[in-house]
Amino acid sequence: MKRSSKPPGRGARAAEAELEASFERARDSAAEERAFFERLMDAIVYVHAPVSDDARTPRLVQFRHPDGFDAIPFFTSLGKAQVAGSAAVKILGVSGRKLLAGTRGATLMLNPNDGGVVLYPEEIATWLDRGFLARVERLAPVEFAVRPAQSAPTWLAPAINRSLEHAHFVSSAYLLETHSSACAEQPPGLLIWLVVDLTFAERAARLVTTAIQPLCADLDVIIDLAVHDVSQPLPAGLDDAQISPIFTRIKPI
User: Fold this and answer.
1) Among 200, 183, 203, 192, residue whose Cα is nearest residue 143
2) Where are the chain's structural domains?
3) What are the residues facing 170 on neighbouring strands?
């Protein structure tokens, strides 16, 4: 990494502007999102390190996200890094590829002061290793009835279980079949119901989505995912004796 204190030259400013424009386009398009991350790998981004840290491998500053987890902030331009900085930090420039590879296992957030995006460890690892990015859409809640999944593909439950093996923040997972009482002609769908520590709710949803989405190309059924606060009782729909979790975390004795 190199320290960045001087204003970037014209070419660097143009590269920053192109990266930021790509990021804005990516907010509304899966194709643009992939193009942005491909561009990010070779772009120079900016991070904060303690000003007194002279270690050969810099320690990067983290901040507490409003949702309660720690994340490493990074920025698409020197200007954005300066606005978010303080006298206690120095700004370092590094390629996106080196940053993602060098912080593997950490949670990152791009442009946190501008409503940026959180990158969870599982998403970063999948992007680095396989070049895959899951597409996650937030949908308005709808009412439906649930029952035990009768026609789920055989690979789905094992894939969910594998993805949750090291996710300490997920207590249990259910695989359900949904049907709408208001529309009898609507085909049943599948619902993955995760019981989680709400601090990690979005991470849990993205973790499972990242694991199963590459396997769904030939699937002709809609799979939804919902998270439930582990501190709250399960909803009445899950009190059916025939419904049991496909994953339960065993608590250490």
Assistant:
1) 183
2) 2-130, 145-248
3) 196
Please check whether residue 175 is in contact with residue 201, taking contact to mean a CB–CB distance below 8 angstroms: no
Residue-wise over 147-165: b if at least 16 C-beta within 10 A, else e?
eebeebbeebbebbeebbe
Q: Is residue 71 classed as helix, strand or coil in its secondary structure?
A: strand
* CA torsion angle 109 160 191 153 (round to 10): 140
CA distance 108 to 208: 18
pLDDT in tens, 209-235: 999 998 887 888 888 999 999 999 988
CA distance 95 to 119: 16
Structural class in CATH, domain 145-248: alpha beta
Q: Which residues pair with 147 in a beta bridge?
A: 177
Per DSSP, 218 falls in state: T
CA distance 172 to 230: 9
pLDDT 10s digits, 168-222: 999 999 999 887 655 556 677 899 999 999 999 999 999 999 999 988 878 888 8
User: Looking up tokens 């006298």, which residue turns up?
Assistant: 87
